[in-house]
Design goal:
Blueprint lengths: L16 H6 L3 E2 L11 H13 L9 H15 L8 E4 L2 H12 L5 E4 L6 H7 L4 E4 L3 E3 L4 E3 L2 H9 L3 E7 L11 H13 L3 E5 L20 H5 L1 E5 L2 H4 L7 E4 L3 H13 L9 H8 L2 H28 L4 E2 L7 E5 L7 H12 L1 E2 L1 E2 L10 E5 L4 H13 L3
Parallel strand pairs: 1-13, 3-4, 3-7, 7-8, 8-9
Antiparallel strand pairs: 2-10, 5-6, 9-10, 11-12, 12-15, 14-15
Helix pairs in contact: 2-11, 3-11, 4-5, 4-10, 12-14
Length: 386
């Protein structure tokens, strides 16, 4: 490999949420990689810093062109200049959408288990969570959509927005074209807008690609807000850079007004240059090597658990550097399990209850770290399983 993903980088005393919150435990929880970002991103940031003036900054043609190049080259989707609106992050975009496209007391549908912050964006704004629980097949160790339940809940006139996770976090599902088309048609037929969180879209297994929600039909394109960013794939969440892609002009205007009303539409002076550097040909080469390493890590973790921690069952996944693990043979309350592992074995994972209904007997393991760190974390996990 051209890039060294085995190098361990000291992150303590750098203000790292991942490491500081874990204390003396190995942090395998929040979706933050322990790899240095693509060198081109680092150079873009240091070059910009060398200028010495850090005034108000706006998006540029190069920023728009980088997104257009990336989605056409990597994902086969043509994005027009007018489709994009800069936003400081995907969570701010989702919260803005909830405030603008729904009213207090209305329902926002999510498919659980799902990224916990979705609940915050809904509940903190006075809306109600409407859960469409994914079906878990214990034998296949995979999740699928409960279509009858989804259709019933979308027909509820109080349900006016759906937040889709594409690919799905934490299960790692890559939704296929037929699934996205069916979701899009059901939502449009029931006058439900779709916010599609696609932040994990570039972290897929080698040879596997995700499908942008807006790309599958005109119906989907007219009724959706796609939230995209380089932050997860390139480990630059602290830069706070993202975009919403909204093909429909009326819906795009609503989002533009909402993002600017919420004052999350202006990036810092590094936000645009970092995205341009990431979404480049060279950035793609780095990402491809990263994906190879991540899936070697996943294979290592799966094999280790199969051989040494037989009571745990990793879920089959084609996306994310996060592993969703079934712990039902030992507990149906993984919060207690995770707390005990942190205290006694000095390793920290995410517990499933915070991901909503259906997550209570699961933990989520962050695989995006050097192999030696992963091996030590798994060893500690094994020692904590009774």
């Amino acid at each position: 490999m051209k890039y060294d993903f085995d190098r361990i980088i000291e992150r303590k005393n750098t203000g790292s949420v991942k490491w500081d919150f874990a204390g003396d435990a190995i942090p395998m929880w929040v979706a933050d990689m322990d790899f240095e970002t693509f060198p081109g991103v680092k150079k873009a940031i240091t070059d910009r810093a060398a200028h010495g003036i850090y005034g108000y900054t706006h998006d540029t043609d190069s920023w728009q062109n980088a997104y257009k190049y990336w989605w056409k080259k990597r994902h086969g989707f043509e994005i027009e200049d007018s489709y994009m609106v800069f936003v400081t992050g995907i969570v701010p975009a989702i919260s803005s959408a909830v405030r603008k496209l729904t009213t207090v007391g209305e329902k926002v549908l999510v498919q659980t288990p799902v990224y916990p912050v979705f609940f915050n964006s809904i509940l903190n704004n006075g809306r109600t969570v409407n859960e469409n629980r994914l079906i878990y097949d214990k034998e296949k160790r995979s999740f699928s959509i409960d279509w009858d339940d989804l259709e019933e809940k979308l027909k509820d006139p109080q349900t006016t927005l759906m937040i889709l996770c594409n690919p799905q976090n934490p299960t790692g599902n890559i939704w296929d074209k037929e699934t996205l088309l069916r979701i899009g048609n059901l939502c449009a037929d029931n006058h439900v807008r779709v916010v599609s969180d696609e932040i994990h879209c570039d972290v897929t297994a080698p040879g596997k690609e995700y499908i942008p929600f807006a790309s599958v039909s005109e119906v989907n394109a007219r009724n959706c807000i796609m939230c995209v960013s380089p932050t997860k794939a390139f480990n630059i969440a602290g830069i706070q850079t993202a975009a919403v892609v909204v093909p429909d002009p009326e819906l795009r205007h609503k989002m533009w007004r909402s993002i600017n009303t919420d004052e999350v539409g202006e990036g810092n002076c590094f936000a645009y240059d970092a995205a341009v550097a990431a979404f480049s040909k060279e950035g793609g080469e780095w990402l491809d090597e990263l994906r190879e390493y991540l899936w070697a890590n996943r294979k290592f973790a799966e094999d280790y658990i199969k051989e040494n921690i037989k009571k745990l069952k990793p879920v089959t996944s084609d996306a994310l550097y996060l592993m969703w693990v079934d712990c039902s043979e030992i507990t149906n309350d993984t919060k207690v399990f995770v707390d005990r592992l942190r205290k006694e074995q000095k390793v920290m994972f995410s517990y499933g209850e915070e991901f909503g209904t259906g997550g209570e007997s699961f933990i989520r393991i962050n695989l995006a770290c050097p192999r030696a760190m992963l091996e030590e974390a798994l060893s500690r996990l094994g020692k904590g399983v009774w």
